Amino acid sequence: MKLWDRLTVLFRNKYAALIFFTVVFFLTRFLFLGADEINPDGVNWHYRSQQFIVGLKSGDFERTYQHYHPGVTLMWITGAPIEIYKQITGYTTYDQYNFLGFNTVAKISVVLAQLVLTFILLCYLSKVAGFKTAYLSVFLFSLEPFFLGNSRLYHMDVLLALFMFIALLVSWLNLKEFSYKRSVLAGVFLSLSFLTKSIGIGALFFVLIFCTAYFANKKDMKSFLKYFFTILGAFILTTFILFPALWVRPVYYLSEIFGESERVGIRKGHEQIVFGETTQDGGILFYPLVMLMKTTPFLIAGLILCFMKCSGSISALVKNIRSKYSNPYLYLAVFYLGYFFIMFYPSKKIDRYMLPLYPLLSLIASYGFIRFYSFLKTARSKKIFMSGAVFFFTVFYIVPVISYFPYYFTYTSPIFGTAASANRVIAQKPFGIAVPALKDYILSRYGGEPELGFIDTKPIKAIYSNSKVADIRINGVSDYELLILGINEEMPDKVLQSGTRFRKDSSLYVNGLEYWRIYVKEDK
Fold it and tell me: Tens digit of pLDDT for each residue in 242-293?
């Protein structure tokens, strides 16, 4: 049986398709999970999750507020499994020897949660777009290397992307055919979006504003009140149930969340290197460049095909005011375009903040591929199209999945040439990538356990003797034997002005990038 015939059979057999997806999901996410990276935010969330569980067990519910994000869903997902792991192993605290075990448990918990959410997303997306389009879109964004890399982190952005997309799908289906069960479910997922990251509140505002316009257009006040208040009520109830700090001081902690989000996210900024210039605000080109750099050409080709084949129907929809309220693609596009442009405003710009766009982009690209295929008239042209699609899918998905393993976080599109070329456009962050490998490299090359100097000490301190790790921006040069700089990190002024000279001795490369540079002191 030829390849395109096998793919057709796979689509027709839903159980086989789901099993195939699950196998791919496990192979790309669970292998070498835990020891691939230790991101500094993840180290923080280990501590916060512990405090969250301590607060629940002791009844000190204010301790369940740990951060303005607020990351409540992440702490629920990982806190309980880590507590069970403690009971099984007898470990009571983290140390350099058991941290990777805790890290693996936390990341497995997050990945399993993502798998469950992906199946829920597929279920509701199938009701909106049909199983074939839904399956292809879920498959595409799950294999997008940058999305895949972030899904392996102990972090929240992929959870936010999944919660938010499910909430929008359920809320849309509820507009078409109201049910109290679905309305409550929409409110629950909108709450989970907000409890993951505070920006998720935007999804609630969008759903409520859109339903107001929708029912005003229909002149149906009774349906509006049912829809609006069941979703809002479910949102409020879920938020209070899952976030015990609100049981104690709701006004205070909600004001803390939004106040800190405004201070840190909007005003404080975040250091980025764009076109070789260091800045606290990546500027208006930052996110468009991120989307080009961190998205595969295959997905971009699907978007182009959709635009070519769907532009006429979109124009017709825009001209007809009533049709604007009956098309799920426009519903989703309005929200995500709003999200994309709103993210231009905060001075704090980080590439992973674009992850929520990937499910929609994959849906549009899948629709473009399938729509283009259906327009082809002859069996020969369809065969050529399928052969080309399989070839380019292999080049832009299968090859990176193999070659970038397990450090998918470092992916850059071949449109930008080599990894080094892309790094000159938007500089890669170290973010704890390959820190366990770096530790092994140091011990094997330099012997013993030498004293180390880092800029960001959190990742290495998690698996190294804390007393032998110094912050080179603060400590004197006598406090460490080896000075280590991550990719795009520069020697601090404190070191340059110390009078002690350091010589680059070796480097650890990751996916074509000189990721970690190791310096030794020169003899005077």
Answer: 999 999 999 999 999 998 888 877 767 788 989 988 988 888 999 999 999 9
Residue 348 or 353, more confident: 353
Run of H or E residues at 331: helix 328-342
3-state secondary structure of 359: helix
Residue 378 has a CB neighbour count (10 Å cut-off) of 8
93-119 in b/e form (b: 16+ CB < 10 A) is ebebeebebbbbbbbbbbbebbbebbe
SS3 482: strand
Please provide the distance, in angstroms rounded to a whole number, between the alpha carbons at the two ends of the chain. Answer: 72
Cα dist from 367 to 51, 299, 309, 370, 391, whole Å:
45, 11, 10, 5, 19
DSSP code for 428: P
Span 73-93, pLDDT tens digits? 999 999 999 999 999 999 999
What's the pLDDT tens digit per position in 465-515? 999 999 999 999 999 999 999 999 999 999 999 989 999 999 999 999 999
Say if strands 272-274 and 277-279 run parallel, antiparallel, or are unpaired.
antiparallel
Tokens, residue 430 = 């170290």
The verdict on whether omega for the bond into residue 359 sits within 30 degrees of 0, i.e. cis, is no
Locate 404 and state its tokens: 């970038």
DSSP 8-state secondary structure symbol assigned to residue 429: P
Tokens of 223: 């349906």
d(CA 72, CA 444) in angstroms, rounded, equals 40
Cβ neighbourhood burial of 518 (10 Å; 0-12, 13-18, 19+): buried
Q: Provide CB contacts within 8 A for 466, sequence distance 6+.
A: 96
The number of residues in the chain equals 524
Q: Give the residue from 152, 153, 156 showing the smallest Cα distance to 67.
A: 156
DSSP 37: B
Tokens of 126: 């199938």
Query: Per DSSP, what are the bridge partners of residue 37?
Result: 433
- In our burial notation (b when 16+ CB lie closer than 10 A, e otherwise), range 128-152 reads bbebebbbbbbbbbbbbbbbbbbbb
Strand partners, 483: 453, 519
DSSP state at residue 507: E
